[in-house]
C-alpha cells in the first residue's frame, strides 16, 4: 500500500535544503509515525525545523490527489510526486488554466534535488484542446520544454484518474507537443500508452546526418570526440539518437559507459539542431534489450519511455530485434511493441505515487 506524506514547509524555496533518504518506506509501510519519517530526513540547514503540526501523514486511501489539491492558498503550490520506473515528476493540477502555474525558472528550483523537491520535471494537467480530453505540458529540470515524455504520460494518466476519481480500466486522449497520445490504465494499475507512429525522416527527427535508408538515418557513422559511433535516428515526437556501439565493435556493455562524460557530447552534437536524447543499447536477445539514457534537458535518468520506444524501432530497423521487446532500464522494465498493422508503438509500464506535498512559490 502506498503511503502519502503531505509536507508543508514555510521556508522560502531558495533557503530550504532537504532530501528524503529513502522513498521505499513511503510506498511499502502501511503505517508511519512522525519520528520514523523524521529519521529518514537528512536536514542540511541548521535553521530548518520540522514540527509534528507541519506535517500530516496517511495512507493513499485517506489522502487523495483530488481532495489534497482542492486547497487554493495564494502563493502555495500543491502537488503530487509520481515516478515511472524511477523517472520522477512533480504533477500539478492545472485544469483551470491554459497557462502553467509554474514558470520554467521556478521549475528548475522545484526540481533541484538538494534545495527543492527533487524531480526530473514538472508536469501540468491542463484543459484539452482540439477535441482532446486533456493537455499535458512538461518543464524539464533545466527549464526547457520537451514535446513529450513517455514515463511522464503514464504518471499523468494515473494523476488524472485520481483527480477524476476514475476506477478500473480507463482511457482518454491527451494533447502533447508530440501530437495525440492515448494512455489506457489497465486493471493491474499499469498504463498502456499508444505512442503513435515513429518519425524516421531525417529532417523531421531532426538530424543533419544524411539519410541512408529511404529517408531515414540507420546505422550511420557519427563522430563524437574522435570516436566513430554507429547510430540510428528516431523521433517519437522528440528526437532520439540510438546506438548499439562504436563502429565495428561487438555488443555494447552499457554498464561500463561513463554516461556523464559521453552523454552531453551527443546531446549537443552539431548534427542535432534541436539537441537529442541518446540511448545506449545492449542486446540480450531478439526480445530482450537493455538501455541507458542521457535525456535532453535532464541528463542521466532512470528511465525514458519515448527512448525505450525509439530503441525498439532502431533495433528492428537494424535487424537486431523483433517488434515486441522487454526493454530493461535502470529503473525497471518496459514492454514495447511496434505493431506492423498500424505502425503504432505501444508502451506498457507502471506509474506510482511517491508523496503529496505543498511548497511556497
UniProtKB/TrEMBL annotation:
GO molecular function, one term: diaminopimelate epimerase activity
Localization (cell): Plastid, Chloroplast
Catalytic activity, EC: 5.1.1.7
Reactions performed catalytically: (2S,6S)-2,6-diaminopimelate = meso-2,6-diaminopimelate
A matching Pfam family: DAP_epimerase
InterPro entries given in the database record: DAP_epimerase_AS (IPR018510), DAP_epimerase_DapF (IPR001653)
UniProt superkingdom: Eukaryota
Record family assignment: Belongs to the diaminopimelate epimerase family.
PANTHER family assigned to the protein according to its UniProt record, in alphabetical order: DIAMINOPIMELATE EPIMERASE, DIAMINOPIMELATE EPIMERASE, CHLOROPLASTIC
Name used for this protein in its record: diaminopimelate epimerase
The organism of origin for this protein: Corchorus capsularis
Amino acid at each position: 500500500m502506498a503511503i502519502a506524506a503531505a509536507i508543508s514547509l514555510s521556508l522560502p524555496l531558495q533557503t530550504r535544503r532537504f532530501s528524503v533518504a529513502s522513498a521505499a518506506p513511503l510506498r511499502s509501510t502501511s503505517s508511519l509515525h512522525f519520528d520514523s519519517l523524521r529519521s529518514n530526513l537528512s536536514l542540511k540547514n541548521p535553521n530548518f525545523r520540522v514540527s509534528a503540526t507541519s506535517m500530516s501523514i496517511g495512507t493513499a486511501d485517506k489522502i487523495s490527489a483530488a481532495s489534497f489539491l482542492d486547497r487554493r492558498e495564494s502563493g502555495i503550490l500543491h502537488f503530487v510526486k509520481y515516478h515511472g520506473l524511477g523517472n520522477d515528476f512533480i504533477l500539478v493540477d492545472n485544469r483551470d488554466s491554459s497557462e502553467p502555474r509554474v514558470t520554467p525558472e521556478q521549475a528548475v528550483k522545484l526540481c533541484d534535488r538538494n534545495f527543492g523537491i527533487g524531480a526530473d520535471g514538472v508536469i501540468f494537467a491542463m484543459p484539452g484542446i482540439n477535441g482532446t480530453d486533456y493537455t499535458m505540458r512538461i518543464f524539464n529540470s533545466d527549464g526547457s520544454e520537451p514535446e513529450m515524455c513517455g514515463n511522464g504520460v503514464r504518471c499523468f494518466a494515473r494523476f488524472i484518474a485520481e483527480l477524476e476519481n476514475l476506477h478500473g480500466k480507463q482511457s482518454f486522449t491527451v494533447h502533447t507537443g508530440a501530437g495525440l497520445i492515448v494512455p489506457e490504465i489497465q486493471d493491474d494499475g499499469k498504463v498502456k500508452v499508444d505512442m503513435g507512429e515513429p518519425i524516421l525522416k531525417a529532417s523531421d527527427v531532426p538530424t543533419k546526418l544524411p539519410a541512408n535508408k529511404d529517408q531515414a538515418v540507420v546505422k550511420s557513422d557519427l563522430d563524437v570526440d574522435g570516436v566513430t559511433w554507429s547510430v540510428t535516428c528516431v523521433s517519437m515526437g522528440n528526437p532520439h539518437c540510438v546506438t548499439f556501439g562504436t563502429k565495428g565493435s561487438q555488443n555494447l556493455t552499457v554498464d561500463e559507459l561513463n554516461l556523464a562524460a559521453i552523454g552531453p557530447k551527443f546531446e549537443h552534437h552539431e548534427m542535432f539542431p534541436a539537441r537529442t536524447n541518446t540511448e545506449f543499447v545492449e542486446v540480450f536477445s531478439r526480445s530482450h534489450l537493455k538501455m541507458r539514457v542521457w535525456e535532453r534537458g535532464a541528463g542521466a535518468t532512470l528511465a525514458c519511455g519515448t527512448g525505450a520506444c525509439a530503441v525498439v524501432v532502431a533495433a528492428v530497423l537494424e535487424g537486431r530485434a523483433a517488434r515486441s521487446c522487454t526493454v530493461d532500464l535502470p529503473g525497471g522494465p518496459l514492454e514495447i511493441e511496434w505493431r506492423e498493422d498500424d505502425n503504432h508503438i505501444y508502451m506498457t509500464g507502471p506509474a506510482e505515487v511517491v508523496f503529496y506535498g505543498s511548497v511556497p512559490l
